[in-house]
Amino acid sequence: VPLVANDDVDAATDGRADGVHLGRDDGDVGQARRVLGGSALIGASCYGDLDRARRAAGEGASYLAFGAFHPSPTKPGATRVRPDVLQQARTLGLPLVAIGGITPANAPALIDAGADLIAVISGVFDAPDPPAAARAYRACFA
User: Fold this and answer.
1) From CA 7, how far away is CA 131, in angstroms rounded?
2) Strand, helix or coil for residue 131
3) Which of 60, 69, 63, 75 is closest to 113 using CA atoms?
4) What integer best gives the mean pLDDT of the chain?
5) pLDDT tens digits for range 103-140
6) What does each C-alpha distance from 126 to 64, 71, 97, 99, 103 come to in angstroms?
């Protein structure tokens, strides 16, 4: 299983991670690519900003993350994003990640809109049976 450090290129380097995921204030994708090399996984949070996604893709991102699509207890103040941003981002040719308040009930609509992956925290870790919750999310891709 690849290890991707969140928000910190130095932590990715020091921890010999397989890559890094960068948000708005975490540095730029191009610099991370230069530091970590061509085989590193580098993700970029794009929120609902297609221009940011285009820049990240042009700088060598491995995948693009969009959201929050639904209210999330992890980031309750996150700006909401419409699912059609996933359809528009398909033209960038990179895997797309949906994040933010995703449940097994609302994940299929995001997958149908273009999400290749979903990112979940509380939906698994706050569930009474985390392994069963993880299986429910996995079944959304069947």
Assistant:
1) 26
2) helix
3) 69
4) 95
5) 999 999 999 999 999 999 999 999 999 999 999 999 99
6) 25, 15, 21, 16, 12
Indicate the length of the chain as a whole number: 142
Which among 66, 55, 62 has a CA at the least distance from the CA of 94? 62
Please give the single-letter amino acid code of residue 65: A
pLDDT band per the 50, 70, 90 thresholds, residue 142 = confident
Alpha-carbon gap, residue 5 to 80, rounded angstroms: 25
Q: Which of 109, 94, 97, 100 is nearest to 140 (CA)?
A: 109
Contact 37, 43 (CB under 8 A): no
**3-state secondary structure (DSSP) of residue 97:** strand
Provide the whole-model pTM.
Answer: 0.93
16: amino acid identity, one letter: R
DSSP state of 120: -
Contact 67, 81 (CB under 8 A): yes
Q: What's the confidence (pLDDT) of residue 1?
A: 80
